[in-house]
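Interim report, section 4.2 (structural modelling).
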Amino acid sequence: MRGVAGAGGSAQRPRPNGRRALAFDPIAEASRHWRERFGETGPMAAVTSIMRAQQILLGEIDGILRPFGLSFARYEALVLLMFSRRGSLPMSKMGERLMVHPTSVTNAVDRLEQDELVRRMAHPTDRRTTLVEITDEGRARVERATTELMGVDFGLRGLDPAETARLTELITLLRQAAGDFT
Amino acid sequence: MRGVAGAGGSAQRPRPNGRRALAFDPIAEASRHWRERFGETGPMAAVTSIMRAQQILLGEIDGILRPFGLSFARYEALVLLMFSRRGSLPMSKMGERLMVHPTSVTNAVDRLEQDELVRRMAHPTDRRTTLVEITDEGRARVERATTELMGVDFGLRGLDPAETARLTELITLLRQAAGDFT
DNA sequence: CCCCAATAGTAGGACTTCCTAGTACCATGG
DNA sequence: CCATGGTACTAGGAAGTCCTACTATTGGGG
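Predicted structure of the assembly:
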């Protein structure tokens, strides 16, 4: 269905969605065009690169998670609940930690609940709040999926540990400047 | 509507979707949890960071483009056409260069055509092929949008030019390993 | 003690991405 | 000369994101 990162090193692996590898880097190519016409192009190349990286990684990860009946969005929600002390959190807390819109949480929880991987519960004191609790099946599922994902480094290839750490570091600077945290 | 990247340096700017800055970095926090439980966490942190960076940048850019009646997806398509020699390209070529699924091109071109920023034309010799040509209005629009985007470094903040270049470089390694190009 | 602003969650809608299927057309081999 | 396989595009649908309301509930100030 997706290949789940088997096959070969890097060259002849079929592209996720049926595209094939190009003989040149289209981002570098575009960057060249920009430079000719506008001069500075660093930020544009970086932004385009990030967009593309996200697309690649999400495709890779979703492909790995598909056999588990999960998407990355729902997987992340399950992980968050698994890490929580009581195995449950208010929806609002989930949105905050996952850094997504409240309606995205509603969406994810709806689907997870349909699969009986989580359960909505009333909050004991605040009737506005909905608690989301991970089920035993949810725990089992996320545990297995995690093993699988870690086995393939979350689809991340081509970077050694130091480079991986540096990448995270640079993006942390970006995120801080964007106001993600103080 | 979105703020268009004005206001302040980094701290008190309202988050794109109404979330506010947290007092800690949720990705670092999650990474700590992972390390406790599973040991290695480098790839997971990097992947999560990229996902978040994409979300931030896309929100930023779409906010800037909204006054121009464009989204980033459609903007990229217009830029591609603007850079092409004849101002027109086959849809398939566009999908290849933009690295998106053919149906995504159809979608983007549909909307651009409704706004009369591009025009579908028959290919002179191959009747399977649809050529997409940028209109004068399309050129004008993308020109103005580009000025705006370059003025705010495509929403990229917090990195100096060297760091920006390094970020692109690291992601290029990732993309190459994923088979984006040879 | 009550009104009113803030908070929590959801419904509905716009947009994007991908996938699967289908149709139309080209190009090559028998 | 046609049959077959590959290419180009689109229709329909699933999933995710965000946004704008809207309802319910809470908690504080007058």
